[in-house]
Amino acid sequence: MGCAASSPEADRPSRRAESRNGGPSFAEISLPDVKWDVDQKWTEQLAGLEFQAIELNGHDDFLKRYPDILFQLARERLEREYPECAREGTIAGLSAESFCVDGNPCAYPCQKTVCLDDSRGGIVYASTMVIAKPLLVRPAADASHQTPKNAVPGVELDGPEMRSAKDMTLRELCAMRAQGINVRHAVVNIAVGADMVLCQLDTSATSPTILHRPPEPSDSFKKDNRMIARKARSESQLCRGMFLSQLVKSVITQGRRQCSEYTVWDQGKLPFYVKGKLYPEPTRLLVTRKLSLLEARDMEADVFEAHSAIDDILDDDVDKIELFRATNPGQEFGDIIDVTLVVATSMDVTWPDTGAYRKSQAFKAAEQAVQQHVKGLYSQGKVQRCTIYVTMGVDRSMFKFVGNPTSPAQAVREASDQQPIVSEANSPSAQNDSLKKDFGITLTPQAKQGLFASQGHFEACKETLRKKAETTSPEYLRAREVFVAPMAARHFLEINFPNCVVSDEGPFPAVLPDGTEVLLEETRLLVARDPEQEPRSIVAAINVVPRPGGPDSEPGLFSSKSWLDTPEMQQADNMLLSLLRKWHKQGLVSDVDCFAQVMMVKDATVYRFVEGERFEDYSEERIAQIKWC
């Protein structure tokens, strides 16, 4: 909250308000007893970036940009942990200019970031404080390192900046709690230089927060729905069952629209009671999961193409929609983002009106049932936070479910007179039949594939990174590209030329017309040599070219631009050809085969260097043998 003012007149408004309300002043707030854990991954990540910079002769630039790197890494950390908040814009940077260390203004750049729930219900997910204290300077390599690395772990853990940041952040959160703000699930992250610690603010908060956030349909939606309902009722026989089919389809497509990495899973039925009697109409539980969270799991999933009854009467082409299901229906993977309970209504209702079910007892019972279901998943550690939806007719209810990052080991489910029935694990064919009969959705099994290494997943990840690039500084992105591209080139050579020695030759030596060489800044030349072909051992060479246009150009890895057949690519091809001609005359290039490649951003050209003079294309058979990752 800042340093103490030198005079009473300069006291901050927040302190005066506390005094008028009779509460404790900021300095008098009682701090909770928390357990701080050291985050080794933070230190390892910084050490890895520093090592890359050293390897690429960019250590001075790394140290110069060190504060920006710290702030960006902390922001990326929150966006990875809370992607839904990043999308909704509820991760906010706050001023930390008033941060003090032992009563004096902090001497180093600081940044404070707070993450709130994506439903804007005022739930604090995380508070992060980063102090960009410069790395210790180690002028010479020690015995354990070939190069001087300054990211020494542990040196800031007990420093004055760390102590002051812990104290200030905890006091701020406690002050927020005193004002009625929900901080019971908040995580605190404090980073000073290469050290980071974290804690859970309130470990006693064993029960989750369930916040009701009912969406209010717009006037235009109500108007459109009335028009559709009138038309549907005029063709009641043709439209019979069409609404329920469209309802399930819309839930599936909405899950994918949130993020191209999201997938929707069929969890079967979730029956429930209304006034002691089983609700007579069908139900369906659909959940949304993120593909990348499941890639490393030992799991099996079936994929279906979902076809709705309404597709049959549409003249336009219908987009393909996919629905996932666990191969073992009784297996629960967790990693849930959204849970939607679809509650069917009578088939006699051709198309429902807005508000027809919102206040009904069945709707309220459905809300209770799905909340209890998610509480059960939380008690098993299968979900930590998610959004819960109940859909009945065109009415919809929404709840934000938030628990502590580590769910209670022994959670006691609340007793209820309306406990949901645990549906039995039906066979896949029975599940498919019920979905078709109850909701008019036909499932067609898709061929087994490398599900989580598909081209679609790659495109989804690329789209996510592109969106992230929109909020990232061009200088930071370009520095990342310069770091990463040579590493990718080295990896490519190592897997395609396994018996060769791969070396980084440094900046590319452009050959001028008079035969002299000039090193090109930010480029990289990587070479693979076959020891058995000495002295003509060079069997592959890659010219790694940075994004043309400089730091202010569009971030290359996230751009749709292709650099193939551009003047920049042709120039890079010619420079590599000139260098190989020179090396061939010097007796350095293999007479058996020499692979030549130019990498420019995310595009690449591939040639075979022949007869010491020219490039020619490889055969399709040879290209098919190349391993790209």
Account of the protein in words:
This is Transcriptional activator xlnR. Residues 9-19 have a biased composition (Basic and acidic residues). Residues 1-26, 413-434 are annotated as: Disordered. The strands form 7 sheets. This protein has a 6-stranded mixed beta sheet, sandwiched between helices. The protein has a 6-stranded mixed beta sheet with strand order 9-18-17-16-13-10, sandwiched between helices. Strand 7 (187-192) and strand 8 form a beta hairpin. The chain has 629 residues and is α+β, with helices and mostly antiparallel strands. The protein folds into 3 domains: 8-200, no CATH class; 209-458, no CATH class; 473-625, no CATH class. The two termini are 49 Å apart.
Percent strand equals 15-25%
Outline: flat
**Strand line-up in the sheet with most strands:** 1-8-7-6-5-2
Global Rg: 30 Å
Rounded mean pLDDT score: 79
Stretches with pLDDT under 50, minimum 5 residues? 1-21, 139-148, 407-425, 449-456
Helical content band: 25-40%
Keywords:
629 residues; alpha+beta; Transcriptional activator xlnR; 3 domains; disordered N terminus
Task: Describe this structure in a few short sentences.
By secondary structure, the protein is of the alpha+beta class.
List the helices and strands and how they pair.
Blueprint: H1 13-20, E1 37-38, H2 40-55, H3 59-64, H4 66-81, H5 83-88, E2 91-94, E3 100-101, E4 104-105, E5 110-116, E6 124-131, H6 160-178, E7 187-192, E8 195-200, E9 209-212, H7 219-234, H8 236-239, H9 242-258, E10 262-266, E11 273-274, E12 277-278, E13 283-290, H10 291-294, E14 301-308, E15 321-326, E16 336-343, H11 361-379, E17 385-392, E18 395-402, H12 428-439, E19 441-445, H13 455-469, H14 474-496, E20 501-504, E21 509-511, E22 517-519, E23 524-529, E24 538-545, H15 567-585, E25 595-600, E26 603-610, E27 614-616, H16 620-625
Parallel strand pairs: 6-7, 16-17, 24-25
Antiparallel strand pairs: 1-8, 2-5, 3-4, 5-6, 7-8, 9-18, 10-13, 11-12, 13-16, 14-15, 14-19, 17-18, 20-23, 21-22, 23-24, 25-26, 26-27
